[in-house]
Write a structure and sequence with these properties.
By secondary structure, the chain is an alpha+beta fold. It is built from 34 helices and 13 strands. 53% of the residues lie in helices and 8% in strands. Strand 8 and strand 9 form a beta hairpin.
Length: 614
């Protein structure tokens, strides 16, 4: 079940009644189904909570964390997301405080847009969860449909047609409609030029200025469905000298057929006339949809030569849609990869396509396609090096590092964050460089592979032009993917330091997936690791007021270098290193014990300074 495709009827929820209990049940379902986990697991967890008598905001807010964890665990939900129990409590308590009930939350919103904003204002409610909730509630409460839907695109096309121009919905939206999927957006093409579009009274020019606006594309505002919509409308175009490559290609106005022929894949080149529901197919895209086949338009090698990124797009669509490659298309991809075409792709575009593959549920088959075509070795040789790196069978019965890398991708949430997906892929790349063996498989070691791997990951991510924030978070996760095991035994100060890192929640999910992907003899495949201690530490940390999560000796008690100099500067000739060492030890004691007595720190500082001055 697709999390975007869930509906209240399947769960026995009657939103048309407008009763609080039905609204609450839908809200609870959205909080569970909106998470990127296996949806059958979310359904089991939902049933467990409702069966336990949690049928209102007040009952959810009054639950204990231990009870929620136990109920979620009945559906194996905790295995996929450890923070949900905490988030359910936080969201329900905030909802109870600000609105009292879900009915009041909905009733206080003037339209679907405002309801979405109110929902995402709650910490822990993301745009996906809000969109699922609003999608079903809006028609009942506000009588308005999604502004960016088929009816809006159809109405805009009909306006163009009334003014004597051709107008069609084209591309991915037509493909998705034919497949019974929900399009993400609707692209319009027309015979009207941007100047002619600007003269149509029903459209007004957008105030948004896009300096990178493509030739022949007009951005307009359009009143429809009781609200103002912003659309992009493109004039039919054709490429001049596309064989010179993407940057050197010039674009001119053209016919619909010429516009279609400039596209990459047959399934993305269908045009729909919304006035007649006729699909115009110049390239055999309908037949390829029915055959579930990925095929380039015309000569596959020519299409790749025009823009090598089409290799990555073909792989993405094949995996995301569950299709197969046309034989000539697969041959052209393999030949182009062998000739180095992928290395000519702009780094940012390559990084973004790789990320799209990794954050999708089909990431494992996509990675295997990259490997089969010889692409992965050319762009991420550090990953494929794992094929030749065997592991200790007593800890990794699954085999080589490469096999473990593939397995861990299976155990990630359906739609992981970008940093979690990349950290999972790269977490063990240091093993190939650190592997040592005395000739017996049981005695293979990978000393400090996490540290070596973190530095290798830094170089890879820098090579792919990731942001400094992403590089910092992902390398931190790679470096600490083993250390998290020791979290319950760490000093309190060190625990807080790890728990307070912005990537800790993803690190916890990486830890779960890593353990699940590590097969051991006599242990059932996929057994849930014993993470309850770490999970409880994380819950306790999140339940602590933000200002108390990271105590600071300087902020809380005013103890810093100036304080030391003020009390001991005349008595002792203090140096910078001495001050730094003493403050570090005092800070560790404060983090671990919470001691606040000033006299204690005076005597402790004096003792430490005397020791350092010897």
């Amino acid at each position: 079940m697709d999390r975007q495709a869930i509906n209240p009827n399947e769960l026995g929820i009657n939103l048309a009644s407008k009763q609080e209990s039905e609204l609450f049940h839908w809200f609870l379902a959205c909080l569970l189904f909106g998470k990127p986990i296996q949806q059958e697991v979310a359904q089991k967890a939902y049933r467990a909570l409702v069966s336990a008598g949690i049928n209102s905001v007040e009952e959810l807010a009054g639950s204990t964390w231990d009870d929620l964890v136990a109920l979620l665990d009945q559906g194996h939900y905790v295995r996929y997301d450890y923070s949900t129990a905490t988030k359910l409590l936080d969201i329900s308590r905030a909802l109870k405080e600000h609105y009292g009930s879900v009915s009041e939350l909905v009733g206080s919103s003037v339209d679907a847009h405002e309801l979405g904003q109110r929902l995402t204002a709650f910490k822990g409610v993301g745009p996906t969860t809000a969109a699922i909730f609003v999608r079903e509630v809006a028609p009942v409460w506000f009588g308005a449909a999604d502004s960016h839907d088929y009816s809006t695109a159809k109405a805009a096309a009909e306006v163009l047609q009334r003014h004597g121009f051709e107008a069609y919905i084209i591309g991915g939206a037509v493909r998705d409609l034919r497949l019974g999927l929900r399009p993400k957006d609707f692209d319009l093409v027309t015979s009207a030029t941007p100047e002619q579009i600007g003269q149509i009274g029903e459209f007004t020019r957008s105030t948004y200025k896009d300096t990178a606006q493509a030739f022949g594309v007009a951005r307009v505002k359009f009143q429809w469905g009781g609200r103002e919509n912003e659309l992009e409308v493109a004039t039919f175009r054709k490429d001049i000298d596309p064989h010179l490559g993407r940057k050197a290609t010039k674009v001119e106005y053209a016919t619909l057929e010429e516009d279609v022929l400039r596209r990459d894949l047959t399934i993305n080149a269908l045009a729909l006339n919304p006035a007649t529901n006729e699909v115009l197919d110049y390239v055999g895209g309908v037949a390829d949809l029915e055959a579930r086949k990925i095929r380039f338009i015309g000569n596959a090698r020519d299409r790749i030569a025009e823009d090598p990124l089409r290799i990555m797009r073909a792989i993405r669509f094949k995996n995301h849609l569950g299709f197969m490659y046309d034989e000539q298309t697969a041959e052209a991809i393999a030949r182009a990869a062998q000739d180095g075409a992928v290395e000519t792709i702009a780094t940012d575009r390559l990084r973004d396509e790789l990320t799209r593959l990794l954050v999708h549920p089909t990431r494992r088959t996509a990675l295997m396609d990259l490997d089969t075509f010889g692409i992965l070795h050319r762009i991420l040789p550090e990953v494929t090096a794992g094929k030749e790196t065997e592991q200790q069978p007593q800890y990794h019965a699954e085999g080589s590092v490469w096999k473990h890398e593939l397995l861990i991708l299976d155990y990630l949430p359906d739609h992981p964050s970008r940093r979690l997906a990349w950290a999972a892929l790269l977490h063990d790349i240091g093993k190939a460089a650190t592997a040592r063996s005395d000739g017996q498989d049981e005695h293979i070691t990978f000393n400090e592979h996490y540290s070596v791997g973190a530095e290798m990951a830094r170089r890879i991510l820098t090579r792919l032009n990731f942001s400094n924030r992403d590089i910092s978070d992902i390398t931190w996760m790679v470096h600490h993917h083993m250390a998290i095991d020791d979290l319950p035994q760490m000093r309190i100060g060190h625990q807080r330091q790890m728990l307070g890192h912005p990537a800790f929640e993803d690190l916890l999910e990486l830890h779960r997936a890593d353990a699940a992907a590590s097969w051991r003899p006599n242990r059932p495949h996929g057994t849930k690791p014993a993470f309850r201690e770490i999970e409880r530490l994380w819950h306790d940390y999140q339940s602590t007021a933000p200002e108390d999560r990271q105590p600071s000796l300087k902020r809380d008690l005013g103890i810093d270098g100036n304080w030391l100099i003020r009390h001991f500067g005349q008595e002792l000739n203090l140096t910078g290193p001495q001050i730094g060492s003493v403050l570090e030890e005092l800070e560790e004691h404060y983090q671990d014990t919470g001691e606040t007595a000033p006299d204690f720190y005076l005597s402790q500082a004096q003792r430490l300074l005397q020791r350092h001055s010897r």
